[in-house]
Write a structure and sequence with these properties.
The complex is a heterodimer of chains A (177) and B (650). By secondary structure, chain A is an all-alpha fold. Helix content of chain A is 71%, strand content 2%. Chain A contains nine helices and one strand. About 3% of the residues of chain A have low confidence. In chain B, α6 packs across α9, α6 crosses α17 and α13 packs across α14. Chain B is rod-shaped, with a radius of gyration of 45 Å. Classes of the chains: A mainly alpha (177), B alpha+beta (650). Chains A and B meet through α2, α3, β1, α5 and α6 of A and β1, α1, α2, β5 and β7 of B. β1 of chain A pairs antiparallel with β1 of chain B.
């Protein structure tokens, strides 16, 4: 990753619409962004690429708003996740019925997970229904609270909790097979 | 067993939290097009506003030019070239000259009968006119410094200077008409032969006779006053003031007769500095023409008035002022000086229109009524012109180059309206980078790979009935860092072009011209650069157990390369850049432009040029595309010099 000064120059060049600078920024940060998107949309390459396109278009358009205060990676990540959420809101169908949230055993053998490759794990995550996958990703990888998840996914907090528990249960079943 | 169980959230976070994947190149292509669309909408108005401003500037120049032409002399105070305007009307001899041209025809007829009687004396008087004319031309082209001085003062000073230097000529003149008559009779015979040959050429002579009315007119006034018995002092004064009108006639004669001189060296030597005027008069005499025609009137009046002047000068007792005038007017000015300034243009058929304008000005008595006078018009028109130009060129697309242009030009005027121009240019061009498809990703493993023993657990295995064997499972954690390397490609950079346009130029006015033509460009094509982006170190971890009988020693842990694996290609598989560039290109195109002249030597040019180039697609992009776009150029130029035609004829 570029140093602070190099990053400043790069960002300013991007703001000045330098195509080469935009390409460089894209090359630097698109793999991580695409990785995030793939966690939500593994198996849907066309959708993932569309979201990546939207994300970087927003990044380049809003680059002038970046204040150099926080980590640039975090700023990009937030835009990418928000773009994913925009996409998911259009596509996922929520189950609004209240379901009982039972006690869960969230622990699995670490050995089992370690054995698996990235793609296997992503494949397992992909087996989750859209809503559960989104909640699981936001809760685990983005550290969103249930309140925040409920807000971004337009659902109530209990639904978010139920989705999370159900996701964990399903994942555990898959891992222990 | 609980310690082997981890929270599923943490396990997934640990394993997938740092997951990255290089997106396919198509994503960037689509994004780039999207960004292009955004930028084009921003950039487009800039070009249009640029064009609009340039058009307004040009239009302003045209309007200004036309306004200036329509301005009337009487309304303009103290215009630049006219001594008469700087003098009180009563005392100005130029004023006398300017207010009496209407009497030309009357006088022409009345004087016609005396022409033959005075032929021997013409030489002296024509010499006077000739030398005055030369002085005049010099003054005109030297920005009229002398014209702001009182004419009498100027010429008197010149008289004093010329007395000694031309005493021999004066002596010859003072010997009287007889001696000169014999000499001239022979000379005229020779020159008539020459002029007969010249008559066959027709065109130049005809035009010449149309051109110099101002000069003719100036001469008419002088003999008129003498003829009617004006006081002798006016003879001197008016002769002096003949330096004020534009001496076009004399210069034309001078030019024409230069040719004669070249062929008739003997004559030139014989008649010293006067043969040009002798020759001209001979031409008049051989072609008297009908009187009904205005031009012929003028021509005849020229002859007659000259003769009259001569007659008065020589047949009357030599008044002191007349003698002084003659002395002064025999002052020689090097012929080259005159020729350098206005020669070379007078033989053009198409010059008639320009010259006719000047003639009309003269006949109307408004010789310098705020318009460029004959001399200035003609001095602006020279066969050869050269200069330099420098400017900036911008394309009509975001993909276009930005070019700094340095050019020279050489112009050959076919006539006052049309010219052929060569404008070779050196262009230093820079084009922004445009990414190409074909980004390659590689990994480079670092040498910091290691493993550590993490845990060990017994594993009970039933090997037979009632027999249990115990295996010892040892867990090892592995870690290694690597760099992710992306190789991408872009076209762009700096390149140099040489351009050679062949242009036809049309002068809309004396200052504004339009030109267009074909264009050959030779230059290196736009290059392709490879960019390498490296990110890292990126930590990768893994674990692997070993199993062995409890009684056996611990086996060697698994190789790190078997535990930590990488997707993609190692950097060792990189085989060099995907693309290469072509060499040099010869391209053909067109060029259209306007040129506006200001402050006499400065030029402001606006032009459009475009060239063809064969397509060269690399990485999904035609890298020759910027070479084929239309370019808009603004240049500032400076005229280094005008070269009269005679310099090229020798």
């Amino acid at each position: 990753m570029p140093g602070h000064n190099e990053l400043s120059v790069l960002i300013n060049d991007c703001i000045a619409q330098s195509r080469s600078a935009q390409k460089k920024l894209y090359d630097l940060y698109s793999p991580a962004a695409y990785g995030i998107i793939k966690r939500y949309m593994y198996g849907n390459d066309a959708g993932a690429q569309e979201v990546l396109n939207d994300s970087f278009f927003k990044i380049f358009m809003k680059l002038g708003q970046y204040s150099f205060q926080g980590a640039f990676e975090g700023w990009i990540r937030r835009i990418v996740v928000n773009t994913i959420m925009d996409h998911l809101r259009k596509n996922i169908k929520h189950e609004h019925s209240q379901k009982e949230i039972g006690p869960e055993d969230a622990y699995v053998s670490s050995e089992s997970v370690e054995r698996m490759s990235y793609k296997e794990l992503l494949g397992i995550v992909q087996t989750l229904p859209d809503s559960q996958r989104a909640v699981f990703n936001l809760f685990v990888f983005e550290n969103y609270s249930h309140k925040e998840i409920a807000t971004v996914l337009d659902m109530n907090e209990n639904n978010s909790r139920w989705y999370l528990n159900d996701a964990r249960r399903r994942l555990k079943e898959k891992i222990n097979l | 067993m609980e310690n082997h169980r981890k929270n599923i959230d943490d396990l997934f976070k640990g394993k997938l939290g740092s997951y990255t994947e290089v997106p396919p190149p198509a994503v960037w292509d689509a994004l780039e097009k999207r960004l292009d669309g955004k930028q084009k909408r921003r950039g487009f108005p800039w070009y249009w506003s640029f064009l609009l401003v340039s058009f307004i500037v040009l239009l302003g120049g045209v309007v200004w030019e036309m306004t200036n032409k329509q301005g009337t002399a009487p309304a303009m105070p103290a215009s630049e070239n006219t001594a008469a305007k700087n003098e009180p009307a009563i005392h100005s001899d130029s004023n006398i000259h300017a207010t009496e041209p209407v009497q030309v025809n009357e006088k022409t007829n009345s004087n016609e009968s005396s022409a033959d009687n005075n032929i021997n004396n013409k030489r002296t008087n024509l010499k006077i006119h000739h030398d005055i004319a030369q002085t005049n031309i010099t003054n005109t082209d030297q920005n009229d410094d002398a014209k702001n001085l009182p004419p009498n003062t100027d010429n008197k000073y010149a008289n004093k200077e010329s007395v000694t230097s031309n005493s021999s000529i004066n002596d010859a003149n003072n010997k009287g008409p007889k001696a000169g008559s014999e000499k001239l009779n022979n000379e005229n015979a020779v020159l008539e032969n020459i002029l007969t040959k010249k008559e066959e050429q027709k065109t130049p002579e005809t035009n010449i006779e149309h051109i110099p009315l101002r000069g003719i007119e100036a001469k008419k006034t002088t003999p008129k006053n003498i003829y009617h018995g004006s006081a002798p002092k006016y003879v001197a004064k008016e002769a002096a003031y003949e330096t004020q009108p534009i001496p076009t006639e004399n210069d034309i004669e001078h030019l024409e007769l230069n040719k004669i001189e070249a062929r008739q060296t003997a004559i030139k030597n014989t008649i010293n500095s006067t043969p040009r005027y002798v020759a001209k008069e001979a031409a008049h005499e051989t072609n008297p023409g009908p009187i009904g025609n205005d031009i012929e009137h003028v021509e005849l009046s020229k002859i007659d008035t000259k003769e009259t002047s001569i007659k008065n000068t020589f047949s009357s007792p030599p008044a002191p002022y007349v003698a002084k005038e003659a002395v002064h007017e025999t002052k020689e000015i090097p012929a080259e000086k005159v020729e350098t300034q206005i020669a070379g243009t007078f033989k053009e058929d198409n010059a008639v229109s320009l010259k006719d304008n000047a003639i009309n000005n003269s006949v109307n008595g408004n010789g310098n009524n705020g318009k460029p006078d004959t001399a200035s018009i003609l001095s602006n028109f020279s066969r050869y012109e050269e200069g330099i130009k420098a400017g900036y060129e911008q394309g009509f697309s975001n993909n276009a180059s930005k070019k700094f242009v340095f050019s020279t030009y050489v112009q050959y005027s076919l006539n006052p309206k049309f010219a052929i121009m060569l404008q070779p240019a050196l262009k230093v061009s820079n084009i922004g980078n445009t990414p190409l498809n074909g980004t390659q990703s590689f990994y480079k493993k670092n040498t910091d790979g290691s493993y550590v023993f993490a845990d060990s657990t017994p594993v009970y295995v039933i090997v037979g009935q009632g027999i249990v064997d115990t295996l010892w499972k040892r867990d090892y954690n592995y870690s290694q860092t690597h760099d992710s390397i992306a190789k991408s490609y872009a076209t762009g950079g700096t390149y140099v072009e040489v351009e050679l346009p062949l242009l036809l130029k049309y002068n809309i006015s004396s200052k504004l011209s339009v030109y267009g033509g074909v264009n050959i460009t030779y230059g290196k094509m736009v290059g392709i650069t490879e960019n390498t982006y490296t990110s890292g170190p990126i930590l990768k971890t893994g674990s692997s157990p070993t199993l062995a009988n409890i009684h056996q020693s611990a086996p060697q842990p698994t190789s790190i390369d078997s535990v930590i694996t990488y997707s993609g290609n190692p950097i060792s598989s990189y085989s060099g850049p995907l693309y290469s560039t072509q060499g040099y290109l010869l391209r053909f195109g067109y060029m259209l432009g306007f040129s506006y002249e200001f402050r006499k030597r400065w030029l402001f040019d606006v032009l459009i040029q475009q060239s063809t180039a064969k397509s060269y697609v690399q990485g999904g992009y035609d890298i020759n595309n910027p070479l084929t776009l239309p370019y808009f150029r603004l240049t500032l130029g400076y005229k280094l010099g005008n070269y009269p035609i005679h310099l090229f004829k020798q």
